[in-house]
Amino acid sequence: MALIAYFLVVTSMRGFVNVYSNFSIVIAWLRNYIDVELTATSL
């Protein structure tokens, strides 16, 4: 039983880390895109 609980905790933590890394990648991409758009409009 403890093994199952440990497995669930590990998989949920791994899923959370995966989502967080994907989210940070999306944020970085958006910031880069916005910077490019602002540079293009200011020029």
Describe what you observe in this structure:
The chain has 43 residues and is an all-alpha fold. The chain has one domain (1-42). 95% of the residues lie in helices and 0% in strands. The protein contains one helix and no strands. The chain has one helix at 2-42. The radius of gyration is 19 Å and the shape is rod-shaped.
Q: What distinguishing features does this structure have?
A:
single chain; 43 residues; mainly alpha; rod-shaped
Summarize the structure.
The chain is mostly helical and 43 residues long. Helices cover 95% and strands 0% of the residues.
- Shape, principal axes of CA atoms: rod-shaped
> Uncertain runs with pLDDT below 50, 5 residues or more?
none
**Rg (C-alpha, Å):** 19 Å
Helix proportion: over 70%
Give helix and strand order, one letter per element, not per position. H
Number of domains: 1
Gap between N and C termini: 63 Å
- What characterizes the major β-sheet? none
Contiguous helical run count: 1
Explain the layout of strands and helices.
Blueprint: H1 2-42
